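Pilot study result, target chain (279 residues):
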Amino acid sequence: MSERPVAVITGGARGIGYQIAADLLGRGYRVVIGDLDEEATRASAARLGGAATGVRLDITDRPLVAEVIETVEREIGPIDVWVNNAGIMPTGAFATQSIELVRTVADVDYAALVEVTAAILPRLLARRRGTLVNIASATGLKPLAGLAVYSGTKAAVIGFSDALRRELRGTGVHVKVIMPNLATTAMGAGITPPKLTPAVTAAQVSRAVLRAIDGGTFATTVPRSLGGVLRFSRLLPTAVQDWIDDRVGTDRIGLGGDPAARAAYAAALHLEPESQPEG
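Predicted structure:
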């Protein structure tokens, strides 16, 4: 059993999850990364080093989630930090997306996060310690065209996290939510963000996660300056919000992007090819 604190990161084989794992290792954690592709996940763990373990983890598979939690706690040690990072972001007009794709996004980005939290929370409560970190999105504060379902799930993650935070006061278990802008990872492939809201890096998001674990504020946008801007914008009349969005070009995130790059992203996740706006 490890004497180091133990952290589990879902969707940890690449991108933001991999960077969080690397940074937690640097903090002295024993890290477990879980992802769908077992071979790729174990290869990522090998690159991270001896204090990292890679396991196959499908967050929509409740029996598998329970098995992973049991195995980690039995063979490595009690889990101190759980990072709900796994997620998918298909883009395109909602009217062109199949109900199967809509359901998959809702299941992965919200329902599974809630169910995974339900699976690990009793253990943290029994020990009266632990931190749950939920990776949401700035689109949960400022929904975007072309990301209707994704924005909705991330708004739900923020609401769920806040309600759970209040429930858990005084238990020794803490809930944090991180809301990054579009990131320069595979999820954002082929998308050029507006100049006023540049994409963030996995390293920036990871630093926000570490600050949260260290006892930072409940909710953090990445970059931090974005939070006030987005909250203020939501107070404006809808017509004014639309005028600003039209001039900033926010629609290029969800309704634009390079079609080949977005199709490749969808194919890698075994999703249907993403629909692009006509015209």
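One observation from the pilot: The chain has one domain: 6-225+235-268. A full batch analysis is planned for the follow-on phase.
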